[in-house]
TrEMBL record, chains A, B:
The gene is rex. Residues 89-190 form the CoA-binding domain. This is Redox-sensing transcriptional repressor Rex. It comes from Streptomyces cathayae. InterPro entries: CoA-bd, NAD(P)-bd_dom_sf, Rex_actinobacterial-type, Rex_DNA-bd_C_dom, Tscrpt_rep_Rex, WH-like_DNA-bd_sf, WH_DNA-bd_sf. NAD(+) binds at residues 100-105. Homodimer. Its main location: cytoplasm. Belongs to the transcriptional regulatory Rex family. Residues 26-65 bind DNA. HAMAP family: Rex. It is found in: Cytoplasm. It holds the Pfam family CoA_binding.
DNA sequence: CTATGTGAAAGACTTCACAGCA
DNA sequence: TGCTGTGAAGTCTTTCACATAG
Protein backbone atom coordinates (compact mmCIF):
# COMPACT_ATOMS: atom_id res chain seq x y z
CA UNK A 1 0.00 0.00 0.00
CA UNK A 2 1.58 3.16 -1.08
CA UNK A 3 1.13 5.83 1.46
CA UNK A 4 -0.27 8.18 -1.06
CA UNK A 5 0.98 10.98 1.06
CA UNK A 6 -1.84 12.83 -0.56
CA UNK A 7 -1.70 16.52 -1.15
CA UNK A 8 -2.18 17.81 2.31
CA UNK A 9 -4.81 20.51 2.04
CA UNK A 10 -3.30 23.29 4.07
CA UNK A 11 -3.11 22.28 7.65
CA UNK A 12 -4.68 19.11 8.92
CA UNK A 13 -3.44 16.55 6.54
CA UNK A 14 -5.73 13.64 6.89
CA UNK A 15 -3.94 10.50 7.83
CA UNK A 16 -2.76 11.02 11.36
CA UNK A 17 -0.44 8.14 12.30
CA UNK A 18 -2.03 5.54 14.48
CA UNK A 19 0.74 5.97 17.02
CA UNK A 20 -0.10 9.63 17.27
CA UNK A 21 -3.80 8.97 17.67
CA UNK A 22 -3.02 6.67 20.54
CA UNK A 23 -1.19 9.46 22.32
CA UNK A 24 -3.72 12.21 21.81
CA UNK A 25 -5.81 11.04 24.78
CA UNK A 26 -2.69 11.26 26.89
CA UNK A 27 -2.03 14.83 25.87
CA UNK A 28 -5.65 15.66 26.37
CA UNK A 29 -5.57 14.39 29.90
CA UNK A 30 -2.49 16.40 30.73
CA UNK A 31 -3.95 19.48 29.12
CA UNK A 32 -7.21 19.08 30.98
CA UNK A 33 -5.30 19.02 34.23
CA UNK A 34 -3.49 22.20 33.26
CA UNK A 35 -6.73 23.78 32.21
CA UNK A 36 -8.25 23.05 35.59
CA UNK A 37 -5.33 24.81 37.19
CA UNK A 38 -6.00 27.71 34.85
CA UNK A 39 -2.59 27.48 33.26
CA UNK A 40 -2.83 29.51 30.06
CA UNK A 41 0.05 28.10 28.02
CA UNK A 42 2.55 25.25 28.03
CA UNK A 43 5.74 24.53 26.19
CA UNK A 44 6.19 21.26 24.38
CA UNK A 45 8.76 20.40 26.99
CA UNK A 46 6.41 20.82 29.93
CA UNK A 47 3.45 19.14 28.33
CA UNK A 48 5.60 16.27 27.17
CA UNK A 49 6.83 15.71 30.69
CA UNK A 50 3.29 15.70 32.01
CA UNK A 51 2.23 13.19 29.40
CA UNK A 52 5.28 11.03 29.83
CA UNK A 53 6.74 11.36 26.34
CA UNK A 54 9.62 13.35 24.93
CA UNK A 55 9.07 16.78 23.49
CA UNK A 56 10.22 15.98 19.97
CA UNK A 57 7.59 13.31 19.70
CA UNK A 58 4.94 15.59 21.04
CA UNK A 59 5.76 18.36 18.62
CA UNK A 60 5.76 15.93 15.74
CA UNK A 61 2.42 14.59 16.87
CA UNK A 62 0.91 18.04 17.05
CA UNK A 63 2.32 18.89 13.67
CA UNK A 64 -0.05 16.33 12.19
CA UNK A 65 -2.98 18.23 13.58
CA UNK A 66 -1.78 21.59 12.37
CA UNK A 67 0.28 24.47 13.67
CA UNK A 68 -1.45 25.19 16.89
CA UNK A 69 1.51 26.56 18.79
CA UNK A 70 3.29 29.89 18.94
CA UNK A 71 7.01 29.89 18.39
CA UNK A 72 8.94 31.24 21.26
CA UNK A 73 5.93 30.80 23.52
CA UNK A 74 4.27 27.43 23.48
CA UNK A 75 0.72 26.16 23.14
CA UNK A 76 -2.50 27.73 24.32
CA UNK A 77 -3.98 25.17 26.68
CA UNK A 78 -7.66 25.85 26.06
CA UNK A 79 -7.23 25.95 22.34
CA UNK A 80 -5.33 22.69 22.25
CA UNK A 81 -7.89 20.99 24.46
CA UNK A 82 -10.53 21.96 21.97
CA UNK A 83 -8.56 20.94 18.91
CA UNK A 84 -7.61 17.56 20.27
CA UNK A 85 -11.11 16.92 21.54
CA UNK A 86 -12.50 17.69 18.15
CA UNK A 87 -9.92 15.57 16.44
CA UNK A 88 -10.79 12.64 18.64
CA UNK A 89 -14.46 13.18 18.09
CA UNK A 90 -15.12 13.93 21.73
CA UNK A 91 -17.19 16.98 21.01
CA UNK A 92 -20.08 14.71 20.25
CA UNK A 93 -22.08 12.28 22.32
CA UNK A 94 -21.15 8.61 22.11
CA UNK A 95 -23.70 6.28 23.60
CA UNK A 96 -22.03 3.07 24.76
CA UNK A 97 -23.42 -0.26 25.86
CA UNK A 98 -21.62 -2.58 28.22
CA UNK A 99 -22.41 -6.25 27.81
CA UNK A 100 -21.62 -8.61 30.65
CA UNK A 101 -22.18 -7.07 34.07
CA UNK A 102 -19.98 -9.23 36.23
CA UNK A 103 -17.21 -7.88 38.41
CA UNK A 104 -15.51 -6.17 35.54
CA UNK A 105 -18.64 -4.95 33.84
CA UNK A 106 -19.76 -3.36 37.08
CA UNK A 107 -16.37 -1.76 37.53
CA UNK A 108 -16.59 -0.30 34.07
CA UNK A 109 -20.13 0.93 34.65
CA UNK A 110 -18.91 2.74 37.72
CA UNK A 111 -15.92 4.12 35.92
CA UNK A 112 -16.11 7.87 36.18
CA UNK A 113 -13.99 8.50 33.14
CA UNK A 114 -16.83 7.52 30.90
CA UNK A 115 -18.99 10.55 31.24
CA UNK A 116 -16.12 12.97 31.34
CA UNK A 117 -15.39 12.67 27.66
CA UNK A 118 -18.52 12.42 25.67
CA UNK A 119 -19.11 8.78 26.44
CA UNK A 120 -22.46 7.92 27.92
CA UNK A 121 -23.46 4.52 29.22
CA UNK A 122 -26.63 3.98 27.27
CA UNK A 123 -27.27 0.56 28.72
CA UNK A 124 -25.94 -2.34 30.74
CA UNK A 125 -26.74 -5.75 29.36
CA UNK A 126 -26.39 -9.16 30.91
CA UNK A 127 -27.53 -12.65 30.01
CA UNK A 128 -28.49 -13.53 33.56
CA UNK A 129 -32.25 -13.02 34.03
CA UNK A 130 -31.65 -12.55 37.73
CA UNK A 131 -29.67 -9.40 36.96
CA UNK A 132 -32.45 -7.79 34.97
CA UNK A 133 -33.73 -4.67 36.59
CA UNK A 134 -31.01 -4.58 39.18
CA UNK A 135 -29.36 -1.19 39.13
CA UNK A 136 -25.60 -1.00 38.74
CA UNK A 137 -24.03 2.38 38.96
CA UNK A 138 -27.54 3.76 38.93
CA UNK A 139 -28.44 2.11 35.66
CA UNK A 140 -30.83 -0.83 35.52
CA UNK A 141 -29.37 -3.92 33.90
CA UNK A 142 -31.31 -5.20 30.92
CA UNK A 143 -31.50 -8.66 29.52
CA UNK A 144 -29.63 -9.71 26.41
CA UNK A 145 -32.92 -10.05 24.62
CA UNK A 146 -33.10 -6.30 24.51
CA UNK A 147 -29.72 -5.90 22.88
CA UNK A 148 -30.78 -5.22 19.33
CA UNK A 149 -33.56 -2.90 20.34
CA UNK A 150 -31.28 -0.82 22.54
CA UNK A 151 -28.53 -0.53 19.97
CA UNK A 152 -30.88 0.62 17.31
CA UNK A 153 -33.04 2.73 19.54
CA UNK A 154 -30.16 4.65 21.02
CA UNK A 155 -28.03 4.67 17.90
CA UNK A 156 -25.17 3.01 19.72
CA UNK A 157 -22.03 2.53 17.66
CA UNK A 158 -19.60 1.56 20.40
CA UNK A 159 -19.95 -1.60 22.44
CA UNK A 160 -17.92 -2.90 25.36
CA UNK A 161 -17.71 -6.64 25.85
CA UNK A 162 -17.01 -7.76 29.41
CA UNK A 163 -18.48 -11.22 29.20
CA UNK A 164 -16.76 -14.56 29.77
CA UNK A 165 -14.58 -15.58 26.85
CA UNK A 166 -17.02 -18.19 25.71
CA UNK A 167 -19.78 -15.69 25.06
CA UNK A 168 -17.70 -12.93 23.53
CA UNK A 169 -17.85 -13.86 19.86
CA UNK A 170 -21.55 -14.46 20.00
CA UNK A 171 -22.19 -11.14 21.71
CA UNK A 172 -19.87 -9.49 19.23
CA UNK A 173 -21.81 -10.89 16.30
CA UNK A 174 -25.05 -9.59 17.69
CA UNK A 175 -23.63 -6.18 18.40
CA UNK A 176 -22.26 -5.91 14.91
CA UNK A 177 -25.45 -7.19 13.32
CA UNK A 178 -27.35 -4.57 15.27
CA UNK A 179 -25.14 -1.78 14.01
CA UNK A 180 -22.19 -1.42 16.35
CA UNK A 181 -18.99 -0.64 14.47
CA UNK A 182 -16.47 -0.23 17.28
CA UNK A 183 -15.84 -2.76 19.99
CA UNK A 184 -13.74 -2.71 23.10
CA UNK A 185 -13.15 -6.30 24.08
CA UNK A 186 -12.18 -7.33 27.59
CA UNK A 187 -12.69 -11.02 27.03
CA UNK A 188 -9.53 -13.00 26.34
CA UNK A 189 -10.52 -14.07 22.86
CA UNK A 190 -9.70 -13.07 19.33
CA UNK A 191 -12.87 -11.66 17.88
CA UNK A 192 -13.67 -12.04 14.23
CA UNK A 193 -15.51 -9.11 12.75
CA UNK A 194 -16.40 -7.95 9.27
CA UNK A 195 -14.45 -5.24 7.52
CA UNK A 196 -15.26 -1.80 8.73
CA UNK A 197 -15.60 -2.81 12.34
CA UNK A 198 -12.84 -1.79 14.74
CA UNK A 199 -11.90 -3.92 17.67
CA UNK A 200 -9.54 -3.03 20.46
CA UNK A 201 -8.77 -5.52 23.13
CA UNK A 202 -7.70 -5.20 26.66
CA UNK A 203 -6.24 -8.22 28.34
CA UNK A 204 -4.80 -8.33 31.81
CA UNK A 205 -3.21 -11.67 31.31
CA UNK A 206 -1.21 -10.50 28.34
CA UNK A 207 0.05 -7.46 30.17
CA UNK A 208 1.23 -9.57 33.06
CA UNK A 209 2.98 -11.97 30.76
CA UNK A 210 4.84 -9.15 29.08
CA UNK A 211 5.92 -7.86 32.47
CA UNK A 212 7.01 -11.34 33.46
CA UNK A 213 9.15 -11.58 30.38
CA UNK A 214 11.05 -8.44 31.28
CA UNK A 215 11.14 -9.34 34.93
CA UNK A 216 12.74 -12.64 34.07
CA UNK A 217 15.39 -10.82 32.10
CA UNK A 218 16.20 -8.55 34.97
CA UNK A 219 16.77 -11.55 37.18
CA UNK A 220 19.02 -13.05 34.55
CA UNK A 221 21.07 -9.93 34.28
CA UNK A 222 21.81 -9.83 37.94
CA UNK A 223 23.03 -13.37 37.87
CA UNK A 224 25.08 -12.86 34.75
CA UNK A 225 26.53 -9.66 36.14
CA UNK A 226 26.68 -6.83 33.69
CA UNK A 227 29.68 -7.72 31.64
CA UNK A 228 31.14 -5.16 29.33
CA UNK A 229 30.43 -7.29 26.34
CA UNK A 230 27.69 -9.85 26.39
CA UNK A 231 29.31 -13.22 26.92
CA UNK A 232 27.61 -16.17 25.34
CA UNK A 233 24.68 -15.60 23.12
CA UNK A 234 25.30 -14.90 19.50
CA UNK A 235 27.02 -11.63 19.00
CA UNK A 236 27.11 -8.44 21.01
CA UNK A 237 23.70 -7.49 19.78
CA UNK A 238 23.68 -3.77 19.18
CA UNK A 239 20.01 -3.72 19.86
CA UNK A 240 20.50 -5.28 23.20
CA UNK A 241 22.98 -2.67 24.22
CA UNK A 242 20.69 0.18 23.41
CA UNK A 243 17.79 -1.48 25.08
CA UNK A 244 19.70 -1.53 28.28
CA UNK A 245 19.63 2.18 28.91
CA UNK A 246 16.50 3.10 27.08
CA UNK A 247 14.24 0.29 28.10
CA UNK A 248 13.80 1.20 31.69
CA UNK A 249 12.93 4.75 30.93
CA UNK A 250 10.98 4.06 27.82
CA UNK A 251 8.89 1.20 28.98
CA UNK A 252 7.94 3.20 31.97
CA UNK A 253 6.82 6.27 30.17
CA UNK A 254 5.63 5.78 26.68
CA UNK A 255 5.14 2.08 26.86
CA UNK A 256 5.87 -0.05 23.89
CA UNK A 257 3.58 -1.41 21.25
CA UNK A 258 0.50 -3.33 21.78
CA UNK A 259 -1.74 -2.62 24.68
CA UNK A 260 -4.24 -4.64 26.47
CA UNK A 261 -6.20 -5.07 29.55
CA UNK A 262 -8.11 -7.21 31.96
CA UNK A 263 -10.67 -9.79 31.30
CA UNK A 264 -13.15 -11.91 33.11
CA UNK A 265 -12.29 -15.42 32.28
CA UNK A 266 -9.21 -17.55 32.52
CA UNK A 267 -6.81 -17.47 29.69
CA UNK B 1 21.98 -1.97 32.52
CA UNK B 2 23.63 -4.55 30.44
CA UNK B 3 21.58 -6.62 28.18
CA UNK B 4 23.35 -9.39 26.51
CA UNK B 5 23.92 -12.35 28.66
CA UNK B 6 22.05 -15.39 29.49
CA UNK B 7 23.58 -18.74 29.17
CA UNK B 8 21.09 -19.80 26.62
CA UNK B 9 22.91 -22.34 24.50
CA UNK B 10 22.16 -23.22 20.93
CA UNK B 11 19.49 -21.13 19.37
CA UNK B 12 17.91 -18.18 21.11
CA UNK B 13 19.71 -15.09 20.14
CA UNK B 14 19.10 -12.58 22.84
CA UNK B 15 17.14 -9.53 21.81
CA UNK B 16 13.62 -10.53 20.91
CA UNK B 17 11.79 -7.52 19.47
CA UNK B 18 9.32 -5.91 21.82
CA UNK B 19 6.60 -6.30 19.22
CA UNK B 20 7.24 -10.00 19.15
CA UNK B 21 7.20 -10.32 22.93
CA UNK B 22 3.82 -8.64 22.99
CA UNK B 23 2.44 -11.29 20.66
CA UNK B 24 3.84 -14.35 22.39
CA UNK B 25 1.01 -14.43 24.94
CA UNK B 26 -1.42 -14.46 22.04
CA UNK B 27 0.25 -17.42 20.43
CA UNK B 28 0.44 -19.15 23.75
CA UNK B 29 -3.26 -18.76 24.30
CA UNK B 30 -4.06 -20.19 20.88
CA UNK B 31 -1.64 -23.02 21.40
CA UNK B 32 -3.07 -23.83 24.78
CA UNK B 33 -6.50 -24.13 23.23
CA UNK B 34 -5.12 -26.49 20.60
CA UNK B 35 -3.32 -28.45 23.24
CA UNK B 36 -6.52 -28.94 25.17
CA UNK B 37 -8.10 -30.32 22.06
CA UNK B 38 -5.15 -32.64 21.76
CA UNK B 39 -4.13 -31.26 18.41
CA UNK B 40 -0.55 -32.46 17.85
CA UNK B 41 0.70 -29.99 15.26
CA UNK B 42 -0.27 -26.73 13.58
CA UNK B 43 0.91 -24.89 10.52
CA UNK B 44 1.91 -21.26 10.76
CA UNK B 45 -1.16 -20.50 8.71
CA UNK B 46 -3.57 -22.15 11.11
CA UNK B 47 -1.98 -20.86 14.25
CA UNK B 48 -1.77 -17.38 12.82
CA UNK B 49 -5.46 -17.43 12.06
CA UNK B 50 -6.25 -18.56 15.58
CA UNK B 51 -4.12 -15.80 17.02
CA UNK B 52 -5.40 -13.20 14.63
CA UNK B 53 -2.16 -12.29 12.89
CA UNK B 54 -0.76 -13.17 9.51
CA UNK B 55 1.44 -16.18 9.04
CA UNK B 56 4.50 -14.31 7.84
CA UNK B 57 4.56 -12.31 11.02
CA UNK B 58 4.11 -15.40 13.11
CA UNK B 59 6.94 -17.24 11.41
CA UNK B 60 9.20 -14.26 11.79
CA UNK B 61 8.30 -14.03 15.45
CA UNK B 62 9.06 -17.68 16.04
CA UNK B 63 12.32 -17.36 14.19
CA UNK B 64 13.53 -15.12 16.99
CA UNK B 65 12.98 -17.92 19.46
CA UNK B 66 14.70 -20.55 17.37
CA UNK B 67 13.77 -23.07 14.73
CA UNK B 68 11.05 -24.95 16.48
CA UNK B 69 9.09 -26.01 13.41
CA UNK B 70 9.41 -28.77 10.87
CA UNK B 71 9.40 -27.76 7.24
CA UNK B 72 6.62 -29.27 5.29
CA UNK B 73 4.80 -30.12 8.50
CA UNK B 74 4.35 -27.31 10.97
CA UNK B 75 4.90 -26.86 14.68
CA UNK B 76 4.55 -29.34 17.49
CA UNK B 77 1.94 -27.82 19.77
CA UNK B 78 3.19 -29.13 23.10
CA UNK B 79 6.76 -28.25 22.36
CA UNK B 80 5.87 -24.73 21.32
CA UNK B 81 3.73 -24.23 24.41
CA UNK B 82 6.71 -25.14 26.50
CA UNK B 83 9.17 -23.00 24.61
CA UNK B 84 7.00 -19.92 24.66
CA UNK B 85 6.13 -20.39 28.31
CA UNK B 86 9.76 -20.62 29.18
CA UNK B 87 10.60 -17.61 27.07
CA UNK B 88 7.95 -15.57 28.82
CA UNK B 89 9.10 -16.76 32.19
CA UNK B 90 5.85 -18.49 32.96
CA UNK B 91 7.49 -21.65 34.16
CA UNK B 92 8.13 -19.97 37.43
CA UNK B 93 5.90 -18.59 40.14
CA UNK B 94 5.16 -14.88 40.13
CA UNK B 95 3.57 -13.60 43.31
CA UNK B 96 1.53 -10.47 42.59
CA UNK B 97 -0.08 -7.91 44.85
CA UNK B 98 -3.11 -5.88 43.89
CA UNK B 99 -3.41 -2.49 45.53
CA UNK B 100 -6.77 -0.79 45.60
CA UNK B 101 -9.65 -3.19 46.06
CA UNK B 102 -12.52 -1.19 44.64
CA UNK B 103 -14.72 -2.40 41.83
CA UNK B 104 -11.83 -2.91 39.51
CA UNK B 105 -9.47 -4.35 42.07
CA UNK B 106 -12.09 -6.90 43.06
CA UNK B 107 -12.66 -7.77 39.42
CA UNK B 108 -8.96 -8.33 38.97
CA UNK B 109 -8.75 -10.43 42.11
CA UNK B 110 -11.51 -12.63 40.75
CA UNK B 111 -9.89 -12.85 37.39
CA UNK B 112 -9.28 -16.47 36.64
CA UNK B 113 -6.52 -15.86 34.17
CA UNK B 114 -4.18 -15.02 36.98
CA UNK B 115 -3.52 -18.44 38.33
CA UNK B 116 -3.49 -20.13 34.97
CA UNK B 117 -0.12 -18.77 34.01
CA UNK B 118 2.16 -18.78 36.95
CA UNK B 119 0.72 -15.64 38.50
CA UNK B 120 -0.41 -15.91 42.06
CA UNK B 121 -2.26 -13.24 43.99
CA UNK B 122 -0.06 -12.95 47.02
CA UNK B 123 -2.12 -10.22 48.60
CA UNK B 124 -4.88 -7.68 48.20
CA UNK B 125 -4.18 -4.30 49.71
CA UNK B 126 -6.47 -1.38 50.36
CA UNK B 127 -6.19 1.87 52.24
CA UNK B 128 -9.67 1.64 53.69
CA UNK B 129 -9.49 0.22 57.24
CA UNK B 130 -13.05 -1.01 56.84
CA UNK B 131 -11.91 -3.34 54.10
CA UNK B 132 -9.23 -4.98 56.21
CA UNK B 133 -9.93 -8.61 56.83
CA UNK B 134 -12.80 -8.72 54.39
CA UNK B 135 -12.25 -11.57 51.95
CA UNK B 136 -12.36 -10.83 48.25
CA UNK B 137 -12.04 -13.75 45.89
CA UNK B 138 -11.23 -15.78 48.95
CA UNK B 139 -8.30 -13.64 49.94
CA UNK B 140 -8.47 -11.34 52.95
CA UNK B 141 -7.80 -7.70 52.19
CA UNK B 142 -4.91 -6.21 54.12
CA UNK B 143 -4.31 -2.64 55.05
CA UNK B 144 -1.81 -0.48 53.24
CA UNK B 145 0.33 -0.42 56.35
CA UNK B 146 1.27 -3.99 55.60
CA UNK B 147 2.44 -3.23 52.06
CA UNK B 148 6.18 -3.24 52.63
CA UNK B 149 6.11 -6.29 54.81
CA UNK B 150 4.11 -8.28 52.30
CA UNK B 151 6.27 -7.33 49.35
CA UNK B 152 9.42 -8.27 51.12
CA UNK B 153 8.03 -11.29 52.87
CA UNK B 154 6.62 -12.83 49.74
CA UNK B 155 9.33 -11.63 47.43
CA UNK B 156 6.81 -9.87 45.21
CA UNK B 157 8.25 -8.23 42.13
CA UNK B 158 5.04 -7.44 40.26
CA UNK B 159 2.44 -5.03 41.54
CA UNK B 160 -0.94 -4.07 40.15
CA UNK B 161 -2.26 -0.61 40.92
CA UNK B 162 -6.04 -0.25 40.83
CA UNK B 163 -6.38 2.73 43.10
CA UNK B 164 -7.89 6.12 42.33
CA UNK B 165 -5.61 8.28 40.21
CA UNK B 166 -4.72 10.48 43.13
CA UNK B 167 -3.16 7.67 45.12
CA UNK B 168 -1.39 5.89 42.29
CA UNK B 169 1.97 7.65 42.34
CA UNK B 170 2.22 7.36 46.08
CA UNK B 171 1.40 3.67 46.01
CA UNK B 172 3.81 3.22 43.16
CA UNK B 173 6.61 4.83 45.13
CA UNK B 174 6.01 2.56 48.07
CA UNK B 175 5.87 -0.53 45.90
CA UNK B 176 9.12 0.38 44.21
CA UNK B 177 10.81 1.25 47.47
CA UNK B 178 9.77 -2.12 48.82
CA UNK B 179 11.29 -3.94 45.90
CA UNK B 180 8.68 -4.19 43.15
CA UNK B 181 10.22 -3.78 39.71
CA UNK B 182 7.24 -4.30 37.41
CA UNK B 183 3.99 -2.43 37.66
CA UNK B 184 0.70 -2.77 35.87
CA UNK B 185 -1.12 0.52 36.29
CA UNK B 186 -4.87 0.85 35.91
CA UNK B 187 -5.06 4.35 37.29
CA UNK B 188 -5.29 7.10 34.69
CA UNK B 189 -2.02 8.73 35.61
CA UNK B 190 1.47 8.85 34.26
CA UNK B 191 3.66 7.15 36.82
CA UNK B 192 7.21 8.21 37.38
CA UNK B 193 9.55 5.41 38.30
CA UNK B 194 13.30 4.97 38.55
CA UNK B 195 15.27 3.25 35.82
CA UNK B 196 14.99 -0.46 35.91
CA UNK B 197 11.33 -0.47 36.81
CA UNK B 198 8.86 -1.42 34.10
CA UNK B 199 5.43 0.09 33.96
CA UNK B 200 2.59 -0.88 31.68
CA UNK B 201 -0.62 1.00 31.80
CA UNK B 202 -4.12 0.06 31.00
CA UNK B 203 -6.64 2.80 30.52
CA UNK B 204 -10.23 2.35 29.47
CA UNK B 205 -10.74 5.99 28.71
CA UNK B 206 -7.90 6.03 26.24
CA UNK B 207 -9.16 2.97 24.43
CA UNK B 208 -12.58 4.49 24.04
CA UNK B 209 -11.14 7.71 22.75
CA UNK B 210 -9.16 5.87 20.13
CA UNK B 211 -12.29 4.05 19.04
CA UNK B 212 -14.18 7.32 18.92
CA UNK B 213 -11.54 8.76 16.64
CA UNK B 214 -11.98 5.98 14.12
CA UNK B 215 -15.71 5.96 14.57
CA UNK B 216 -15.84 9.63 13.76
CA UNK B 217 -13.90 8.98 10.60
CA UNK B 218 -16.27 6.32 9.46
CA UNK B 219 -19.14 8.72 9.86
CA UNK B 220 -17.23 11.34 7.94
CA UNK B 221 -16.55 8.94 5.14
CA UNK B 222 -20.17 8.19 4.66
CA UNK B 223 -21.01 11.84 4.54
CA UNK B 224 -18.09 12.87 2.40
CA UNK B 225 -18.56 9.83 0.23
CA UNK B 226 -14.94 10.03 -0.72
CA UNK B 227 -15.31 13.53 -1.93
CA UNK B 228 -13.84 16.65 -0.50
CA UNK B 229 -11.99 15.14 2.39
CA UNK B 230 -10.44 12.29 0.48
CA UNK B 231 -7.08 11.62 2.06
CA UNK B 232 -8.58 9.73 4.88
CA UNK B 233 -11.43 7.65 3.74
CA UNK B 234 -11.62 7.96 0.02
CA UNK B 235 -8.04 7.86 -1.03
CA UNK B 236 -6.62 4.37 -1.11
CA UNK B 237 -5.13 5.30 2.18
CA UNK B 238 -2.61 2.74 3.05
CA UNK B 239 -3.93 2.48 6.52
CA UNK B 240 -7.54 2.65 5.53
CA UNK B 241 -7.08 0.13 2.83
CA UNK B 242 -5.25 -2.25 5.09
CA UNK B 243 -7.76 -1.69 7.77
CA UNK B 244 -10.52 -2.80 5.51
CA UNK B 245 -9.28 -6.31 5.17
CA UNK B 246 -6.77 -6.71 7.88
CA UNK B 247 -7.76 -4.18 10.48
CA UNK B 248 -10.75 -5.97 11.72
CA UNK B 249 -8.42 -8.82 12.18
CA UNK B 250 -5.38 -6.83 13.03
CA UNK B 251 -6.73 -4.27 15.39
CA UNK B 252 -8.35 -7.03 17.29
CA UNK B 253 -5.25 -9.02 17.69
CA UNK B 254 -2.06 -7.14 17.54
CA UNK B 255 -3.47 -3.77 18.32
CA UNK B 256 -1.39 -0.76 17.63
CA UNK B 257 1.20 0.91 19.76
CA UNK B 258 0.70 2.02 23.25
CA UNK B 259 -1.80 0.10 25.25
CA UNK B 260 -3.99 1.08 28.04
CA UNK B 261 -6.92 0.09 30.03
CA UNK B 262 -9.57 0.89 32.48
CA UNK B 263 -9.23 2.79 35.61
CA UNK B 264 -11.14 3.76 38.62
CA UNK B 265 -11.18 7.49 38.52
CA UNK B 266 -12.33 10.00 36.00
CA UNK B 267 -9.92 11.13 33.40
C1' DC C 1 5.36 -30.95 -3.16
C1' DT C 2 4.61 -28.53 1.37
C1' DA C 3 5.35 -25.26 4.82
C1' DT C 4 9.26 -23.32 7.47
C1' DG C 5 12.92 -19.94 8.04
C1' DT C 6 14.87 -15.77 6.52
C1' DG C 7 17.44 -12.20 3.67
C1' DA C 8 15.83 -8.13 1.61
C1' DA C 9 12.54 -4.49 0.67
C1' DA C 10 8.91 -1.63 2.25
C1' DG C 11 6.72 0.92 5.85
C1' DA C 12 5.90 3.07 10.19
C1' DC C 13 7.57 5.47 14.03
C1' DT C 14 11.02 8.01 16.56
C1' DT C 15 14.75 11.05 17.15
C1' DC C 16 17.75 14.53 15.53
C1' DA C 17 18.86 19.01 14.72
C1' DC C 18 18.08 23.28 12.96
C1' DA C 19 15.58 26.82 10.09
C1' DG C 20 12.50 30.26 11.03
C1' DC C 21 8.82 32.88 13.23
C1' DA C 22 7.18 35.51 17.36
C1' DT D 1 16.31 34.93 22.09
C1' DG D 2 13.13 30.94 22.74
C1' DC D 3 10.44 27.46 21.19
C1' DT D 4 7.82 25.57 17.52
C1' DG D 5 7.54 23.03 13.16
C1' DT D 6 9.67 19.84 10.19
C1' DG D 7 12.93 17.77 6.66
C1' DA D 8 16.23 14.15 7.17
C1' DA D 9 18.29 10.35 9.44
C1' DG D 10 17.90 6.46 12.25
C1' DT D 11 15.48 2.53 14.28
C1' DC D 12 11.98 -0.79 14.70
C1' DT D 13 8.22 -3.66 12.33
C1' DT D 14 5.99 -5.75 8.85
C1' DT D 15 5.66 -7.84 4.48
C1' DC D 16 7.53 -10.08 0.58
C1' DA D 17 9.14 -13.90 -1.75
C1' DC D 18 11.90 -17.72 -2.22
C1' DA D 19 15.67 -21.02 -1.08
C1' DT D 20 15.47 -25.02 1.54
C1' DA D 21 14.55 -28.96 4.65
C1' DG D 22 11.48 -32.78 5.23
Amino acid sequence: MATGRSHRPATRSRGIPEATVARLPLYLRALTALSERSVPTVSSEELAAAAGVNSAKLRKDFSYLGSYGTRGVGYDVEYLVYQISRELGLTQDWPVVIVGIGNLGAALANYGGFASRGFRVAALIDADPAMAGKPVAGIPVQHTDQLEGIIQGEGVSIGVIATPAGAAQQVCDRLVAAGVTSILNFAPTVLTVPDGVDVRKVDLSIELQILAFHEQRKAGEVAAAGAVVPPVGSGPEPVAARRASAAGQDAATDQGPDGDVPAVMPT
